[in-house]
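lol ok so funny story. i was supposed to be doing the assay writeup but got distracted and ended up predicting the structure for this chain instead. priorities right. anyway since i did it might as well share w the group, maybe its usefull for someone
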Amino acid sequence: MPRAWVWTQLAIGWLPMWALFTVLMMSAHQSPVEEAAPYALRLMAIAATLGMVVHRLTARLPWPHPFRLRFIVVHLLGGLAYSMSWFGLNAVVESLLRRTIAIPIGPGIGPYLVVGIWLYGMVAAVAYASREAERSAQLKALAASSQLAALRSQLHPHFLFNALHTVVQLIPLDPRGAVRAAELLAGVLRSAIGEHKEWVTLRDEWDFVQRYLEIEAIRFGERLVVRSEIDAAALDAQLPSFALQTMVENAVRHGAAPAIEPTTLQIRARLDRGRLLVDVDDNGVGADLALVERGGTGLRRLRERLAWLYGGSASLVLRGAPGQGFGATLQLPLRRAAPEENGDD
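and the output, tada:
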C-alpha cells in the first residue's frame, strides 16, 4: 500500500474522527478528556489499521459497471466482518492494558457494530473515490498526450510543405537562390524532424526561426523586411516548440506573400511581471479576424496546444483587419529550463 495513502487517511479521516469520538465519550459517559482521548485514540488506531485491509479489498473488488447485486452483498459482509473485528480487537487491547478480561460494550453491542459498519463504509467510499479520481487524472493525461501528439503531427507536414514550396518556386526564377534555399532547408528540416521536445527555450526557437527567415529572404528579396527586438532576459524562457515559428510563418504567408509592396515583419519578445510576451506584427495585406478564427490555420492549432499545455493561463491574441496588417501576441507563464536542459543540444 502506498505510504501516501496511509498518511492521507490519517490526516483527512481518522484524526478528526478521533476528536469526534473523544467529544462523544466525554458527553455520553461524563469522562474527563484525559480518559476519553486515549480510549478514543485506541479505537481509531484499530479502525485505521483495519481500514488498510478495506483499502486492499476495494482494489481487488473494483466498482462494477454495470452495478451488480454481488458487489453490495460482498461489502455488507465485509462491513459486518470489519465491525466484529473492530469490536474484538478493541476488547483484546483493553484486556491487555488492564491485565484482565475486558469487553467494552459501551452503549451496547448493536450500536457498536452499527458504528463499525459505518466506519467501513466511510473507508470504502474514500478508497473508491480516490481510485476514481486517480483514474480520471490518468485518462485526462492520456487524452492530453494524444491530442498534443496529433497537433504536432499536423504541424510538421504543414511547415515542411510550405518550406519545400518556397524552394520549388525559386528553381525557375533563381537557380542559385534555389540551391542556397535547399541547403538552408536541409538544416531547417534536420531541426524540425529531430525536435521532439514539447518545450524549448526562446533562444533555440529564435535560432530556428532565423534560419527559416533566411529561406524566405531568398524568395522575397527586398519585399520582406525583418526587424527584431528580443530581450536577452527572455532568451532562457521556455515556450512550446514551433510556437514562434508558427506565428512568423503565418505573417510571411498571409502578410508578405500576397503583397506587392515591401512588408515589414516585426518580432518582439520580453518578460513582463512573470510572463513571457511574444509579438509578431506585419504591415501586409491584413486579414479578416473572423475568417482567421474559423479557419484551419497553424494559429488555431497553436491555440489548441496552449489550451492543453497551460489551461487558461496562456493566450494567443490576434489583431488586424483587411488592408491594415496583422498581429499576434503570445502570453505565457514564465517557465525556465533546468540547467541540464540548457545543455541538451
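The chain has two domains: 3-138, 174-342. The CA atoms of residues 94 and 100 lie 8 Å apart.
back to the writeup now i swear
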